[in-house]
Design brief:
By secondary structure, the chain is α+β, with helices and mostly antiparallel strands. The chain folds into 2 domains: 144 residues, Sandwich (Jelly Rolls); 103 residues, Arc Repressor Mutant, subunit A. It is built from 8 helices and 9 strands. Strand 3 and strand 4 form a beta hairpin. Helix 4 packs across helix 5 and helix 7 crosses helix 8.
Length: 279
């Protein structure tokens, strides 16, 4: 279940878990921090004055961000979440991860990248992250670091994006019935209940809940559930779970129906994402 962010409010830039040594500057606009994190590691809601790219060479992350709407991202290897400067966010490690955090000075933020998004981590981007990480603090020449940093920022700005976020109703001012329904679906993605059945469980009519999805999340229940299914399915595929099992765990009666939905949304078949473990 996603970790609920508190109401958006003014919070100071936080120094979290020894982060001071990795704060980017105009002279060093890109810093890479590598950590091995066990499952169930939590980073409570916080924000930075710089941008962040949350990426893991292996393992699975859950990133919840308010930009200003709350969105939950499930991040397998080969994908990363861009977090804009000042965005309130929390991170939960779902599966033991080799976490690679890129901190980018606010001046290096690509034009128009004011929110959060999921990007595809290209082989070139992976290698540049690995190179900067391998030389962090070990005497890499300033000129070479500057060239690598500039190329890395350009590669990020050119990266393909994918709509893998799952929007969530506001915890403080959203309708509590809609919030409860969304959380129930995320807890039980294999449940094949209709919106009418979920609505009855929440003490509301199907018409009311459909209106709440449109008004609060700007989408239909069917579209929202598809995003939730994709967020659930990608980590399973990244771990090498057979497509048949992923389809069943996602509430699909047949592999073909699941594969058709997946390919339409992602542009690739589920088998393409099997064992995508990064470096």
């Amino acid at each position: 279940m996603p970790r609920t962010l508190p109401a958006r409010k003014s919070l100071p830039i936080q120094s979290v878990d020894g982060i001071d040594a990795f704060i980017p500057s105009r002279q060093r606009p890109v810093r890479v921090r590598a950590r091995s994190l066990p499952a169930d590691t939590h980073f409570e809601p916080h924000r930075h004055g710089w941008a962040q790219l949350a990426y893991c060479a292996s393992g699975i992350l859950q990133v919840t961000a308010a930009t200003p709407d709350e969105v939950t991202y499930i991040v397998p290897p080969s994908r990363a979440v861009w977090i804009a400067p000042g965005a309130l966010h929390a991170i939960n490690v779902l599966e033991a991860a080799e976490f690679r955090t890129l901190y980018l000075h606010a001046d290096a933020t690509p034009a128009g990248w004011q929110g959060c998004r999921v990007i595809v981590v290209s082989p070139l981007l992976r290698e540049m992250v690995h190179s900067l990480d391998a030389h962090e603090g070990s005497g890499l020449s300033a000129a070479r670091e500057a060239m690598l940093s500039a190329l890395l920022v350009d590669e990020i700005s050119q990266a393909d994006t994918q709509p893998l976020g799952v929007p969530m109703p506001h915890a403080d001012r959203g309708d509590k019935r809609l919030r409860a329904l969304c959380e129930a679906v995320l807890r039980a993605p294999s449940e094949r209940a209709t919106l009418a059945e979920w609505s009855a469980d929440m003490g509301a009519s199907e018409r009311t809940m459909a209106r709440l999805f449109r008004d609060e999340l700007g989408t239909s229940y069917q579209q929202w559930r598809q995003q939730a299914i994709l967020a659930h399915a990608l980590p399973l595929l990244a771990r090498g779970t057979p497509v048949s099992q992923v389809a069943a765990a996602s509430g699909y009666a047949s592999d073909s129906a699941f594969s058709a939905m997946f390919k339409a949304a992602m542009g690739q078949s589920p088998s393409y994402f099997l064992n995508k473990t990064g470096l």
